[in-house]
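User: Before I run my own analysis I want an independent prediction to cross-check against. Here's the chain; please return only the structure tokens and, at the end, one sentence I can use as a sanity check.
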Amino acid sequence: MQVRRPPASPLYPKIRFAFTDHPITVWAGAILLRLYFELIGLRATLTPWLVPFTKTSNNQIPAADVLLAWWYGLALGAERFEHFTRYRRDPLLPRLLGLSRFPSPDTLRRFFHGFSYGRTTEVSEGLMRVSLRAMRPILLGHTLDLDSTVFCRYGEHEGSLKGHNPIKHGRPSHHPLVAWLSERRRLLWATLRAGHAGTANGVREFLAHALTMVPPGHRIGLVRADAGFFVTTFLTALEVRDLPYIIVARLTPLVRKRVIHRIPESDWRPVARGIAVADGTAALPAWHGQHRRFVCLRQTLTERPDASGRRLIECPGYTYRVFVTSVPFAAELVSRMYAGRADSENRIKELKEDLSLDTFCLQSFDATDAAFRTGGVLYNLLMGFRETVLPSCWFERRLRAVRDQVFWVGADLIPNVRRLRVRFAVPPEERTQFLHRLRTLSEGLPIAAQLDWDLSEAEVTNPTPNVPVPTVRPVYQTSGISP
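Assistant: Structure tokens:
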């Protein structure tokens, strides 16, 4: 008897649609991040710090799993707490990441609401030191860049007040302060402040706290900051600690009178087309007779119409930038040494745009601060992941490139006799690199025994000979590392 075929759709004439019971995920590449966390022993390190968050409910998710899920969600592109629902609905992702299940958005909120200021500082200090301990030292010392940014807020939250907001004037905000290690691209320390706080508010205490986070065997060779940190107390604190510094000076009328207008035209030395530098010493009234060195950079607008700097009415045709410094090098070298600080703006963009740390806000200020600081720890962990797993050419790429090209990998789970097989949907030309990353991270770990490197007949499209396709067995309890 001939079976009558149903008519074909004019939209999809050769496609038949059906359901599948096989778990499927689009974030299978996150297994690389999970292996990196196991490589550095992160879960065992987290447990002692999260003891105060332990609950007695039979249905509880361990505090370490909640924090790890928070980091996985940020790395995979979550921009709101509600976005964690998408990972919670994924049946395969928790198996790959070694979690019993993903916490709900409300679980994450309750977790962060359990932080007080003291507990936030204690936990973030411990985790930040963990994230920095594998960093290699710099022979001449790290360059420490201090900066602040603005997190716009839309609602009534603790600490969300009106202050300096360069993009949305009058909008309530938070005003975090951050310290970067420039050469290694690491976040040394960060804290959240109320929106009406000035740039230099609490900067001395912040600097003292940040210096305690420097790993043993490392030192700070230079401190750079913009004009917001041009305050006498901060300069004095740097000199007491014997830290070389280059800080942009505010071009107040007094600075212009005592620095710029006292430089003879013959003292300006050209260093490039349309660029000249000069230096000298001066004392401001607030310094009580103490002289400090100023380095001035002048650019000619006729030759460099897009020059940055401030234009002065009394000196038309030029832009000026003035630095106060304790560095004894030539003026042109000082200006070039400071120019590298512009890269800290890219690091702030990664915090705000790639990890979306400016969009996670809770009613409690301490809870918001805890979410922000733990997100900063993840930033350092991702920097370490990039240096350990990815080629050196990835050093200049943004974190979103790591997410889009490394973590976003499709996979399905197929029952196979007495075990399960995970098949990664990696393009044939990228399978060699993917396998290399898996082998690099899994070697010597308990999970290495759960990885099979064999060729499957279903993967005959692989054009590279003798390159196995990974299949991952289900992850069981192993040495207390993962469920």
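Sanity check: Residues 365-389 form the longest helix (25 residues).
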